[in-house]
Design goal:
By secondary structure, the protein is of the alpha/beta class. It has ten helices and ten strands. The chain has a six-stranded mixed β-sheet with strand order 1-2-3-5-7-10, sandwiched between helices. Strands 4-6-8-9 form a four-stranded mixed β-sheet. The protein is globular. Bound molecules: ligand LHQ. The site of ligand LHQ has 25 residues, from helix 2 and strand 6.
Length: about 260
């Protein structure tokens, strides 16, 4: 169900979540976090939902934490941000990473601070050509969060991760694609159609196999090759026991398109 801060639209196996505080560039408040959490939980348990699309309303994707909500009072320090991460951002990033369905991010405009890193937590990131990514934290004396210090060196390497976080300059969508930070840059007026087409394709895919693929890639970050080979053995055992794997192989041999249900068993 749509809320004031997160719009939810379900169609053809795709759940589209739109961050909706356009006047404040969709900056995160506790209320927006709560709605997004509920929407992701609902998408997770909805068997009809086979792919999630996350995007923003208006000219931005998301400007990160709403700084009016963390305003220091008088001469006091900033209210404890660690708690906010513990309660809201960290569970959000884990939820996206652990969701057993693909999550596409359609970065329709600037993605700044935690907004950039929530986008990068998604499985496939598409960005409008006019969009940009800004690790804004250094501008306000904070540390990159929402998984930024984990994902950036892995995606673009340590030298670029240091430049992005310490200089806090916007990175264009085109450079983000060239650097391997995101999957694809798309002309602004084509973003919605392209993301919808990819989402429709994934909504008809073997969802369980994709969930296991997501798990294998995530675990590769800390596994040795030997551990990863063992994991692939185990996950392939699970995938091949699913009806979709049987259908995929049957369809290939019968020279027809596969009809996947997305189910585990
Ligand atoms: C905003 C914001 C915003 C409130 C635009 N807050 N209003 C986690 C845990 C706990 C504590 C702290 O942080 C975190 C994680 C983080 O995300 S920290 C990083 C927070 N984000 C930023 O530092 C980015 C702040 N925003 C900007 O630098 C600019 O707005 C960017 C570069 C994103 C866009 O610039 P412009 O296109 O020039 O837009 P604008 O600045 O004019 O913004 C439009 C409106 O949105 C404006 O409101 P107003 O009422 O004056 O029209 C801004 O105040 C508001 N807004 N970001 N994060």
């Amino acid at each position: 169900m749509s809320g004031e801060n997160v719009l939810v639209a379900k169609s053809g196996g795709v759940t589209r979540l739109t961050l909706h505080r356009p006047d404040k560039l969709n900056a995160f408040t506790v209320a927006m976090h709560a709605e997004l959490r509920a929407a992701l939980e609902a998408a997770s348990s909805d068997a009809q939902c086979r792919v999630v699309v996350l995007t923003g309303a208006g000219r931005a994707f998301c400007a990160g934490q709403d700084l009016a909500e963390t305003r220091p009072v008088g001469d006091a320090a900033v209210p404890d941000s660690g708690n906010r991460l513990e309660q809201w951002y960290n569970p959000l990033v884990r939820r996206i990473a652990e969701l057993e369905k693909p999550v596409i991010c359609a970065v329709n405009g600037i993605a700044a601070g935690a907004g950039a890193n929530v986008a990068l937590a998604c499985d496939l990131v598409f960005a409008a050509r006019s969009a940009s990514f800004l690790q804004a934290f250094a501008r306000i004396g904070l540390v990159p969060d929402a998984g930024g210090t984990w994902v950036l060196p892995r995606l673009v390497g340590p030298a670029r991760a240091r430049g992005l976080t310490m200089l806090a300059e916007p990175l264009s969508a085109e450079k983000a694609e060239a650097w391997g930070l995101i999957w694809k840059v798309v002309d602004d007026d084509k973003l919605e159609a392209e993301v919808s087409a990819v989402a429709a394709r994934l909504a008809a895919a073997a969802t369980y196999g994709l969930a296991l693929t997501k798990r294998a890639l995530a675990q590769s970050a800390t596994n040795t090759l030997a551990q990863q080979l063992d994991l692939e053995r185990d996950l392939q055992g699970l995938a091949s026991a699913s009806p979709d794997a049987a259908e995929g192989i049957r369809a290939f041999l019968e020279k027809r398109p596969a009809k996947f249900t997305g189910s585990k068993a």
